[in-house]
Amino acid sequence: MGLPIQATVSLGTDIVDIMRIRRMVKNKRFLNRVFTSEEVAYCADKKNSAQHYAVRFAAKEAVWKALSGRTSLRGIGHKEISVTRDRDGKPGIKFSARLARYQSGISLSLSHTKDYALAVALYQGRS
Question: What per-residue string of b and e applies to 57-69 under the rule 16 or more CB within 10 Å gives b?
């Protein structure tokens, strides 16, 4: 009989000051290093783009935290984690090819106020 498959559940959360991100997104180098072209196009089209950038930044950090502990995931880049939305507006994550095996195990919740953006990521998968 083989070894049992171990299930893993891990949580990641992040909160971001929207004013800080508002200043940072003025730097094109920061935008290109952190956000995919799809994310930039989505956020740039919004009236208060800083809120949308901030919640995506928080999401990337929360997902990274939820996945951190996996030895095969050293050096995850921000652009390897892309925040998406389905037809109903529900947020989701699209991973780079290197991280694709974690795609089905991740859940995401996003929220923001005028001043702060919050993200919570839950990973449920095999260890």
Answer: bbbbbbbbbbbee
